[in-house]
Specification:
single chain; mainly alpha; about 250 residues
């Protein structure tokens, strides 16, 4: 029998956060002597947390009062991710940026991106298993939705929105590097919440290729070209544009 709605989802997401925290701590203790495996597992655990929690949050978008509840949860969990996943990017675009700028080796960058997509798949499989148990109200019928069609505008407009949001987000991350960490996490969370409010009803405002695949794998299967252009290519192009702006137009900041 299904139990309460938002409370059960919060309990599930809290369990994911605690479990990932324990896994990251265990990896630090046991795998420091194996840097490649350590980097892969930490990035995988971290991305799993974000993808799993966001999959669950996607079921709470219609909780009243709308959109205040969804936006509050988005802000709160973004802060929580920022505090608990320090040192991980959890976004192929965030990994691509230092790779393109020469700050990360191709081998290490490729390893982290692979970990992110592995985590995206694992998080989707895990959450679908949890939903199939239908133990909580938000999970009832969640698996019958198929492609939830996050793209509610033309492909060109969706492409431009995801590209623009990726540019804004990556520039903000770079600009905030000099800010005190305890304030930076709130600034980034506020920006993400604002972007979700501005474009969530048009594209989902994801600007994270791995997260997009975890959330909407069915849509990628049905319309691979459209979704790969909007949710993979656009954010990556935005990241490359940010690297160019940062290094060529504002060289004194790099």
């Amino acid at each position: 029998m299904a139990v309460g709605g938002v409370g059960s989802s919060l309990l599930l997401m809290s369990g994911v956060v605690v479990t990932v925290g324990l896994c990251r701590r265990l990896a630090r203790r046991r795998l420091r002597s194996r840097p490649l495996l350590f980097a892969f597992l930490v990035e995988m655990f971290s991305t799993f947390q974000i993808c799993a929690c966001t999959n669950e949050l996607s079921l709470l978008g219609n909780v009243e009062p709308k959109p205040h509840t969804a936006l509050t949860l988005t802000y709160g969990f973004t802060v929580l991710h920022g505090l608990s996943l320090a040192g991980s990017t959890c976004n192929p675009c965030g990994t691509l940026q230092p790779m393109w700028g020469g700050g990360t080796s191709l081998r290490m960058g490729g390893l982290k991106i692979a970990a992110q997509f592995v985590a995206a798949v694992l998080a989707r499989v895990f959450m679908h298993f949890i939903w199939s148990l239908e133990m909580a109200e938000p999970h009832l019928g969640a698996l019958s939705q198929g492609c939830s069609s996050p793209m509610q505008t033309t492909e060109m407009q969706a492409f431009c929105i995801e590209l623009l949001f990726s540019v804004v987000f990556q520039l903000a991350v770079l600009q905030a590097e000099s800010v005190n960490p305890k304030y930076r996490v709130h600034l980034i969370a506020l920006l993400i919440t604002m972007l979700v409010y501005a474009g969530g009803n048009l594209t989902g405002a994801i600007f994270n290729p791995a997260l997009a695949f975890s959330l909407h794998a069915d849509c990628f299967y049905d319309k691979f070209l459209s979704y790969s252009l909007v949710y993979w290519l656009a954010p990556c192009l935005g990241t490359i544009l940010v690297v160019f702006i940062w290094d060529e137009i504002f060289p004194w900041k790099s």
